[in-house]
Please model this.
Amino acid sequence: MNALPCTIYISFLGALLALAAGMRSAATARVVALLTALTSCGVTLYAASQFVPSQGLQTLIDVPWIPQLGIRYHLAADGISLTLIVLTGIAAVAGILFSWNIEERTGEFFALFLALIGGVYGVFMSADGFTLFVFYEIAIVPKYFLIANWGSTNREYGAMKLVLYSFAGSALVLAGLLWAYAAAIAHGAAPSFGLGDIAQAATQFSRHEQLGMFALVFLGFAVLAGMFPFHTWAPTGHVAAPTAASMLLAGVVMKLGAYGCLRVAMPLFPVGLMFWQPLIAWLAIIGIIYAGLVALVQQDFKFVIGYSSVSHMGFVLLGLAAANTTAVSGAVLQMFSHGVIAGLLFAVVGRMVYERTHTRQLADLRAMPLHRLMPFAAMTFVLAGLASMGMPGFSGFPAELTILIGAWKTSPTWALVAAVGVLIAAAFTLRVLQVSFFGTTEGTAEPASHHHDHPLPPITWPERVGALLLIAATLYVGLKPDILLDWITPALQSPLFHAALKGGSL
Amino acid sequence: MSPDYLQLLRALYPEIALVLGALVALGLDLTVARRHTLEERRGMSLWIGTLAIVAAMAHVWLGSRGSVFGGVLMLDKLAVATRFGVLGLALLTLGMVRGARVLRHPAEYVAIILFATIGFTLMAAAQQLLVAFLALELASLSLYVLAGFDKTSPASSEAALKYFLFGGVSAAFLLFGFSLIYGVTGSIELGEIAHQLTVQHLTPLLIVGLVMILVAFGFKAAAAPFQLWAPDVYEGAPPASAALIASASKLAGLVLFTRLLWNGLGATSGSAATATGQPGWLPVLAIISGASMLLGNLGALAQTNVRRLLAYSAISHAGALLLGVIAVGAGSEHRMVWPVFFYAATYGLATVGAFGIVGVVDRANPGGCQRLTDLVGLYRRSPLLAGCLAIFILSLAGIPPLAGFFGKFAVFAAALQLGGISGPAGWLTVLAIAMSAVALYYYLLILKQALVVKPAESVQRIAIPPMTALTILVAAALIVVLGVCPSLVLSRL
Model:
């Protein structure tokens, strides 16, 4: 376990090395980046094998950082952190495999990518508000350059919008955290940004302080989690981003927001949670259904996936808003599940299909017999689509089911309305699957198209390995969700979450 | 109390070193260096200036502490840190001069930078109105000359004239304010003034005096509504002059006025809550601060000239710095001065760096470096410059783990301790945090040109003089180190 912080340092070091290697050759930079990601992924898996869930939040390192303000460099991990750290490790490796074809400014690409990964690892381990915030912001800026430099459609607009939304969200978080810090001092506590310390001091805050702080911090994080109506950055950003960045943005970075809501906003300000709970739940449900409906009518393949991410993240927010152990453990499971599945979907759309056909318009793709031209991509997308719809056997099923059961415990209405979202997800996934990969099956009259004259480049080995890695992850967790739930549930039953979550477990 | 001239001499070793350096640079340039090229003469003067500043820094580091010459100067921790800071910033500025376009009369340029620095170091320690005013004027007059030093450029002359007119008027205000304060309290010593004011009411005369001092402060900090000079000066002045105006001058001015307001006039501070609070200078400062943040950030959004953009960013930072001055009241006995000091010092560091890079690009481009598009393709023309520019600009934007972030963070944390988010400085803090999201947009516009936009096929690499490259690297490294470990500085304050 104690090796976990190394993942942060390895990633940052790898970023520097990749930058240096990129000056010499692109191939070296790739290898350096892959080795870095593999090493940190290996460290997380090793730590996971040593993990004892019943111990609750385990401190990994805790040293004074800026004593003048009571800031400590405090990293800790419990089952929730570990789930997301493992997800980050897998997503990082897959992302690098799927960006194997980046030829332009390769070193810089991987340096930014790894810096982003390092920040993400850091957020998932932070137990000090300041430390968490620092890592959170480190993860923001690289996104701009990744999208603006290596992106596609409307990339500068998408990059700027995404970064400004993220940064505005983090400004809200900063305001909320600083307010809580100052209020804790005013109530006689020693200056500290430790999440545990603030939670303790927050029990003495007045009701309106709790409501205000919760609103600031939760909303700030929820922007990054894609909460309706602050989700509009997500589809444009994901579409503009290069494949690896889309995978990472949808797969991991949106989880930063949800994780912040769960780790900071909810346990620190339970009174605020009680007050805002219905509003958050309804916004989440609107997000699920609205984004699903929008995905249903998109003409751009990648926009379908972009909106589906917003829809699936709505389930995470609903699980958090339901605020019982079942629903929240389902939410964490969904974070993992969606992280893997969204990565897979974006990989197929952005790398396998778009890089070869140079179009993402469903009308164009319909004319190409993609299931024959690239059977591997079609197979991958079928599996990913099934997983995304919540088919049993894949990780999406236990996750969304658990969320809906948990939501039912809090309010049956929520669960009933949200369940409609599952149907919509099936609808838009099947539609896009049919149109893009099996399009020509309906019009047999079409003659052998000219695409046969220019066979598409074959799927490369890095792509195959990356796709298999992600498919294996979603299948493994889908068939044996206990492996993650056994980590998550004890973490939620720890005293940290007592005030926020009420009763109920699987 | 008999004045101790020997003690005064010892306390002024740094200033003496600077004067000697300036005179030696001028003298050698007039005698030995007559036949050399402008570039060589500049190089020699810069070495002498560098030596003088390093000697001054050593004296500051090792020199005496405490009250000097019957309380004329106060060499407390803040003064020592500020002197060290302004000397460091001046040193970096000298390094940046080397990379910028060669101007005529290089020795005079270096000498005047040193004279300005003397003004800054005295401002950092002044504890008496007269010394404060003289130090401020020494610095200001030198800066007017520096702003107009590029005699081939009409914009530079315009900058100098505008700066001089604004500065002259604000100096008149300041002097008048001082004389009123003297009239009311009968003293020019800050300690004595503070003592007198505790027993006096806020008379109209005193209020007029306070307002006049705030006008001069607003000018020095480039805060709204006294900011009009800033965009023109930053645009027209030689980049190294602009760097000094934006960095060391700001730090010294900020410390001087913080001392003046809190140590001298603290009893008349009133409450920062504008509508309901007690009258005093805090509510005025709060309004100036809020106006600067709004005007600076919104004004910057519309800029297409990189130097004017930096000027508007300076105006917005001035607003945040004034918030830091307000937050000084959060500590016991108004001693919470380190956040604003840290903020001003690191802001100066980032600005010197940014202007240094503007200077280098200015020299390399045939058309200079004015528009944002002049930075296009910097990542290909010089990866070093592009990388360091990213560090400086992101530090200005307040992105962790760079020093600019921690400065802001500490100021906000202190400001909120004045009574939480609904407290007197709460609305300002919220405004400042909200504005930081606005600011990121225009900072990213700079970086977009430098790091994202693809240049034309044939780009010329930019040659950087080794000393300038070193200076830029040192500034960038300091920003990273101070951002990751701010305690290195804080533990000494």
Q: What stands out?
A: The mean pLDDT of chain B is 89.
